[in-house]
Amino acid sequence: MASNYETFFDCNRYAVIGHSSAKPFPLLSYRGLKKLGKQVVAIDPSAQHIDGDPAYSDLSALPESVDAVIIEAPKTDTKDWIARAAEAGIKHVWIHMGHDTPEACALAEQHGMNVRTGTCAVMYLKPGLSYHSIHQMIMKALGKY
Question: What is the set of domains in the chain, with CATH numbers?
Fold first, then answer.
């Protein structure tokens, strides 16, 4: 049976949220979703393009709604992105490890969101031997995959 983390990738349309003026945009997640054949849009308030694709400043600026978001923006912005996702009606959220806060998680729970946190989405997206696959093996051994 698939874990809650694995079922995150059953969605079709994703937004990957970053803030490239503060830290590099999460290209591994962005490209990994595209390789799976998912429709992916970049949300980055400090960029007009990500990886040659248009970047949007906010979820409200998207031409179409998305089913799920991966948040890898600065930790100080996570709660605000959860609030924006709730306003957009998004129920599937992945907060990149180390970017969650108790306030953000509580807000997501209040809005009935299915939040995945505490780990990296890339270990589910990048096949082959890499540090992400090693992380994957460790998480499986610990029963947290």
Answer: 4-141 (3.40.50.720)
